[in-house]
């Protein structure tokens, strides 16, 4: 019987592929695929793999045909099984080269296609998978959204509007300036520095407060440049808040070298009138900007307060003088404070853009989410299923995915295993500074290394007054991190230790001492990162966009619903660094029916007593 061309071709490939890596490579080139992929595979073998095993090294940037042939011929001395070692050898080479992550990922994918092809064709035998320990055999089904359901997009859950970045010197994480032509001129740079010193020296403002004010200032400056077309070189702080001549000197009131009292009165009145005209113009400019950015009255009020802080700086020489003894006597400050008061009243009478019940879950559900994250952090093998729930196969999870889950578990753990604090406490949690290990007794802290029995050491969050928003009111604060024990016997401290020893610097060193870090760039986190992290966790697990701030409301509401005692509510307020008044006014989202339950029960007892005696 005559053999077909196809049968002949397959036989030839099988015969050749059994000889060495070169003939296996030659067979791979015959497979239908893009010419670009073949070229990339050849380049990786010639430039990286062959030199790594002692073969010839191309001399130029681009290998010559002769160099390519020599390098590929070198592979004839290696059996096909050697191909299975290629990915690991190349990883060692990549780690020594200055390659960006995208290039490494592309090369890794290319060589894996070659290896997997050889395994699929049974030209080489797939390596046996190592037996995992029982602890690693937990199978957590459905890591992804069910088939047919797209990933939930978390943008605009809270009513914000998408705009192109407009701030001066706006940056995208890891991508440099949004507008490469942006710069801060020398005069403006000097003014910004002076403004920062002024806020510290004159008002003793916290670092975070100044950061918020400077962010608002940069945004307004960017808007003035992009929307009002003011050149970058002409931008000054007075472009936002213009200075008005208010103090009339004695020299300005001389008439024929004699002091003229009437002239003084006239000039002061004129100066005040001009100042109010300038203030009204600035107020309208700020209103135009607020209309541009949109958002809630609360956010707008925050921007106006930054403008007020800037006005205090601009008129710092006038404040306290005889004609303007108080800040509010300055026309510019007076007008901006009026605007702030209007926005404050609007905030009190404006419903939340997104009602609390649409961005929160019961506190018990938050603890269930924490447990799900803990299981994910312990899951090394997962099952993959397709539409209809039919089980397809198990696969080993990537180590960096497990590390990410560990960090997410700890992030939520700190916010739920103890009364949740403001986000800043967590994204600025710093090893050996605000997160310390040892024992706190009798008002003294003993570090772990100085303890007689280090095994008894506990973890604490330690905040100095400047480390948190209400620090000037509540002072230095110590909070013990509970060593919660979970259903499988593991403890929260064990996960902290695992993160510090295995996860925090899993792929690279951190250039800081913060406990938490970015998942890919290993940089410190900021408020936006933390907000997004917590929100993404809850969107994935519950479908609700719960933020760190909503967690605080959820906790207080849970305490009220559970009938917490006055002592417990007082302790919670202290732990959360706010007053009982704020606890009730800002964080209590207790349902109306639950709030009314005590008086309804009282009324029921009264009428039952009356009716039963009649």
TrEMBL record:
One of its GO terms (biological process) is DNA integration. One of its GO terms (molecular function) is DNA binding. It comes from the Bacteria. The keyword Flavoprotein does not apply. Keywords: DNA recombination. The keyword Secreted does not apply. InterPro entries: DNA_brk_join_enz (IPR011010), Integrase-like_cat_sf (IPR013762). Gene3D superfamilies: Intergrase catalytic core. This is Integrase. It comes from Aetokthonos hydrillicola Thurmond2011. The lineage of its organism: Bacteria, Bacillati, Cyanobacteriota, Cyanophyceae, Nostocales.
């Amino acid at each position: 019987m005559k053999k077909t061309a196809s049968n002949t071709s397959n036989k030839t490939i099988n015969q050749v592929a059994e000889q060495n890596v070169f003939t296996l490579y030659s067979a791979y080139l015959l497979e239908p695929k893009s010419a670009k992929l073949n070229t990339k595979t050849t380049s990786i073998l010639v430039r990286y793999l062959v030199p790594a095993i002692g073969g010839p090294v191309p001399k130029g940037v681009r290998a010559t045909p002769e160099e390519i042939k020599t390098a590929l011929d070198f592979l004839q001395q290696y059996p096909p099984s050697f191909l299975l070692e290629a990915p690991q050898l190349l990883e060692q080479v990549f780690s020594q080269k200055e390659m960006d992550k995208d290039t490494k990922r592309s090369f890794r994918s290319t060589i894996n296609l070659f290896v997997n092809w050889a395994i699929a064709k049974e030209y080489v035998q797939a390596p046996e998978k190592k037996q995992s320990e029982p602890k690693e055999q937990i199978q957590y089904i459905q890591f992804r959204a069910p088939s047919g359901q797209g990933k939930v997009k978390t943008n605009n859950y809270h009513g914000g509007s998408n705009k192109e970045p407009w701030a001066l010197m706006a940056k995208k994480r890891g991508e440099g300036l949004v507008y490469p032509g942006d710069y801060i001129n020398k005069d403006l740079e000097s003014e910004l520095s002076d403004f920062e010193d002024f806020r510290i020296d004159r008002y003793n403002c916290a670092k975070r407060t100044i950061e918020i004010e400077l962010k608002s200032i940069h945004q307004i400056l960017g808007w003035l440049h992009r929307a009002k077309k003011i050149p970058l070189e002409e931008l000054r702080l007075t472009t936002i808040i213009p200075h008005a001549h208010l103090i009339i000197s004695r020299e300005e009131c001389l008439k024929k070298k004699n002091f003229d009292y009437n002239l003084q009165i006239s000039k002061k009145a004129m100066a005040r009138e001009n100042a109010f005209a300038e203030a009204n113009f600035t107020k309208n400019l700020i209103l135009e900007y607020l209309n541009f950015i949109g958002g809630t009255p609360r956010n707008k009020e925050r921007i106006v307060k930054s403008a007020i802080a800037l006005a205090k700086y601009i008129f710092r020489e006038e404040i306290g003088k005889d004609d303007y003894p108080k800040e509010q006597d300055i026309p510019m400050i007076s007008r901006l404070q009026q605007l702030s008061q209007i926005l404050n009243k609007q905030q009190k009478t404006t419903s939340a853009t997104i009602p609390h019940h649409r961005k929160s879950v019961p506190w018990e559900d938050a603890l269930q989410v924490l447990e799900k994250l803990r299981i994910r952090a312990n899951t090394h093998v997962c099952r993959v299923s397709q539409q209809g729930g039919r089980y397809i196969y198990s696969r080993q999870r990537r180590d960096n995915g497990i590390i990410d889950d560990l960090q997410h578990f700890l992030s939520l753990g700190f916010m739920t295993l103890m009364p949740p604090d403001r986000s800043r406490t967590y994204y600025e949690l710093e090893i050996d500074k605000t997160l310390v290990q040892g024992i706190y007794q009798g008002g003294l802290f003993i570090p772990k290394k100085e303890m007689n029995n280090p095994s008894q050491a506990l973890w604490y969050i330690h905040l100095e007054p400047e480390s948190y928003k209400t620090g000037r009111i509540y002072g230095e604060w110590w909070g013990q991190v509970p060593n919660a024990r979970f259903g499988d016997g593991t403890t929260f401290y064990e996960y902290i230790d695992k993160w510090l020893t295995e996860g925090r610097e899993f792929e690279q060193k951190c250039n800081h001492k913060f406990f938490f870090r970015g998942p890919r760039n290993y940089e410190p986190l900021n408020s936006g990162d933390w907000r997004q992290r917590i929100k993404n966790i809850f969107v994935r697990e519950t479908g609700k966009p719960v933020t760190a701030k909503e967690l605080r409301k959820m906790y207080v509401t849970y305490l009220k619903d559970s009938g917490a005692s006055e002592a417990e509510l007082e302790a919670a307020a202290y732990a959360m660094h706010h007053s009982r008044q704020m606890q009730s006014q800002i964080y209590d989202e207790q349902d109306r029916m639950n709030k009314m339950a005590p008086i309804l029960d009282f009324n029921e007892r009264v009428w039952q007593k009356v009716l039963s005696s009649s």
